Amino acid sequence: MAQTIAFAYTALDAAGARRSGVVEAESREAAVAQLSAEGRYVLEIHPKGAAASAAASGAAGGRRRMPSRQDIALFTRRMADMSAAGLPLDRVLQVVAEQSESLTLKEVAEEALNDVRSGMPVSQALARHPKMFPQVFTQTLRAGEASGQFAEVAGRLADFQETEVTRRSQITSALVYPGVLTFTAIGVVIFLLTFVVPRLSGVFKDLGNDLPITTKMLLSSTDFVTKNWILVVASLVGAVVAARLYLATSAGAFARDKFVLQAPVIGKVIEKATVSRFARVLGTLVYGGVPILEALEIAGLSAGNRMFQVSARAVGGGGGEGAAGRPIADAMRDAGAFPPVLTHMVAIGEETGDLPRMLERVAQSLDFEVDTGMRRLISLVEPIIVLSMGGFVGFVVLSVMLPIFQAQQTIK
Description:
Elements (H helix, E strand, L loop, with lengths): L4 E8 L5 E8 L2 H10 L3 E7 L2 H11 L8 H16 L4 H11 L3 H15 L4 H6 L7 H13 L2 H57 L6 H15 L1 H19 L2 H13 L3 H23 L3 H11 L3 H13 L9 H8 L4 H13 L2 H57 L1
Antiparallel strand pairs: 1-2, 1-3
Helix pairs in contact: 3-4, 3-8, 4-5, 7-8, 7-12, 8-9, 8-12, 8-17, 9-17, 11-12, 12-13, 12-17, 13-14, 14-15, 15-16, 16-17
């Protein structure tokens, strides 16, 4: 039988009177469900006593972590569903906090609930936690609050987050097998160079200098690695640190993002994925009622690429173009970073007055192209890794066997 915990609660009964008491249940959620079944509106509930608090802390200790993207998407979906059902926003936050499986997110929701009950808008209360709720999230909710379409805007925001979670999950799953192959290949190379070949080097040296060129190359490489492994490791670590420091600068980050977009084969896939995210974020913001110039800048920040960020800021007025009253599509064409598929659909959206729907269509179309491109890329990478590993192993085997064959011929 599961251990029960005593919870002290404060609730409103069916007549609206404030009541306090203690209820025993297996978890906080079960206690809330039990009180709700009795017709009571829970205002506050927490474990009673040190033993109960310790038990509750032990049960939840493993979940005290930064909420994942999936946690945030589920939080937004529940918030949209509850508000669409007609619940007041403070009640929405309370229910969402009780349903949250992430202890950190639960605490943030409860903190936001207190802020909302003190008169603060939901968007502003959540904006106090920018690591969990970025600007695109809070600005969209703020526009929804101002327009009286909070439920619709929150639903659109939940759709966007769920799409992002699905896309990341697909990419991660697709990269698992190539990643395993890559680490296996690196492990095989290290094993051969540091364990197998050094044990054979003494035999080869006894054969004299009349060794095949491949064997000499292999022995020289192995000898260098084994004698200077500290230098090799230090050089690799230094190169990684130097690269990270450079990429942390604005110039380094911009150069990296530009290189990634221009890289052969994979560059086109990354560009389409970036444009898809930009279009979906921009469409979500515009649908929520965020002013277009402000939405452009936020979408540029959310795209994850410095080239799009700079171009979006220029279109939005930072470069003087957006502020001149020109059509957004024309300014985007002049910025240079946006492909024709996006600028054409933006122009149509401006003409028809349905820009959010056009941007969503662009995102969906590019998502299909990204999925197709990823499958092709992975189907190309896998055999390349296998062939590279097989080629190196073959080189080692050839370098080891040739001197043996030569020795046999000499004996004959």
